[in-house]
Amino acid sequence: MIRVLVNGALGRMGSEVCKKVYSEADLELVGAVDIKEGTVPLGDGVKVTTDLVAAIEAAKPDVVVDFTRPDVVMGNLRKMLPLGVHAVVGTTGFSDADLKEVDELARKHNTSLLIAPNFALGAVVMMKLACEAAKYFPHVEIIEKHHDNKLDAPSGTAIITAQKIAEVRKAMHQGNPDEKETMAGARGADYEGMKIHSVRLPGYVASQEVIFGGQGETLKISTDPINRECYMPGVALGCRKIVDQAGLVYGLDKLL
């Protein structure tokens, strides 16, 4: 039995995580934390408290699942990792320096953490297929589409997709060399010559399309989550496998 505490338990993702953990025979929901007190409506009700450190010390979880905000997640990890718990993190917005810091912090305290920009298995497969396609179609642009309450852009999924594609394709300039934006930002962000475009609209969950262009043809690889339930198998997998790791594991694909 793996004891799990959920941080951000009253949020859209956090509440789904609570339900998933509660329903799994080998996972036990032992605590819930959010910025405000409340109750998760499971069984007789799971009390939600606001003090992360106190909740960890009281519940003694094996794993803390964090679905909070980019502006607070590093502070959360600086609190939880020294307490010797493992972490499964779905919050995005990490810099390279952040990733280096939490890896060192986890190793110092003999624990581990999974940071996954996307827990959907479809997204993991999409990235793998995109890397295969990039070997033959080096001209590529990424369009990611999220709900309008998402705080960071581009998404962590778009960033890691571009990073993985860059491992199999040389950096290159795409488009006309004399291209000029008549409105700043029209061509999107740039990563190793790849353009990344972010859409923020009500109605989306977390869709992404990777478009490859070749002579006389285009190839599109996309993923379109219908609801947040699609992330839960990946979160549960992370809880089960991170307890046997050391330091930082970046990306759910590392545990598949």
Automatic annotation (TrEMBL):
Residues 2-119 form the Dihydrodipicolinate reductase N-terminal domain. NAD(+) binds at G8, A9, L10, G11, R12, M13, D34, G90, T91, T92, A116, P117, N118, F119. Keywords: Amino-acid biosynthesis, Cytoplasm, Diaminopimelate biosynthesis, Lysine biosynthesis, NAD, NADP, Oxidoreductase. It is an enzyme of class 1 (oxidoreductase). The keyword Nucleotide-binding does not apply. One of its GO terms (biological process) is lysine biosynthetic process via diaminopimelate. GO terms for cellular component: cytosol. Its EC number is 1.17.1.8. Its main location: cytoplasm. It is found in: Cytoplasm. The active site is at H146, K150. Pathway: Amino-acid biosynthesis; L-lysine biosynthesis via DAP pathway; (S)-tetrahydrodipicolinate from L-aspartate: step 4/4. InterPro entries: DapB_C, DapB_N, DapB_N_CS, DHDPR_bac, NAD(P)-bd_dom_sf. Residues 122-256 form the Dihydrodipicolinate reductase C-terminal domain. It holds the Pfam family DapB_C. It catalyses: (S)-2,3,4,5-tetrahydrodipicolinate + NAD(+) + H2O = (2S,4S)-4-hydroxy-2,3,4,5-tetrahydrodipicolinate + NADH + H(+); (S)-2,3,4,5-tetrahydrodipicolinate + NADP(+) + H2O = (2S,4S)-4-hydroxy-2,3,4,5-tetrahydrodipicolinate + NADPH + H(+). (S)-2,3,4,5-tetrahydrodipicolinate binds at H147, G156, T157. GO terms for molecular function: 4-hydroxy-tetrahydrodipicolinate reductase; NAD binding; NADP binding; oxidoreductase activity, acting on CH or CH2 groups, NAD or NADP as acceptor. Homotetramer. Catalyzes the conversion of 4-hydroxy-tetrahydrodipicolinate (HTPA) to tetrahydrodipicolinate. NCBIfam families: dapB. Belongs to the DapB family. This is 4-hydroxy-tetrahydrodipicolinate reductase. It comes from Phascolarctobacterium succinatutens YIT 12067. The gene is dapB.
